[in-house]
Amino acid sequence: MNEILNEFSQMWHQNGPLAVVGFVLVIIGVCIFGVGKKIPLVRYMLGDRSMITQIFWGSIITTLGIVMIYLFRH
To answer: Which residues contact 71 (CB under 8 A, 6 or more apart)?
Structure first.
């Protein structure tokens, strides 16, 4: 666990906080895209129970996170 926290801390200081936020968005987007069907709370937050909406929002959030990582890296 300490190794994970150390890597996260180094990423925060080397890349900046907005790149770390982008990384978190990528993780959330991939989770929504991949396993959102098995997590009902995520599906209710998206306002729809369809897989098309799950795929759409997962793709949008993941793309936004990747763009943030690309733009705010040093």
So the answer is: 18
The two tokens of residue 56 are 């759409």
| Amino acid at site 66 | I
Taking the C-alpha atoms of residue 50 and residue 42, their distance in angstroms, rounded to an integer, is 12
The residues, any chain, with a CB within 8 Å of residue 31's CB and separated by 6 or more, are: 39, 42, 58
Instruction: Give me the residues of the chain with pLDDT under 70, please.
Output: 1, 4, 8, 11-15, 36-49, 74
Cα 37 from Cα 72, distance rounded (Å):
31
pTM of the entire predicted model: 0.66
Residue 39's pLDDT is: 67
Largest CA distance in the chain: 39
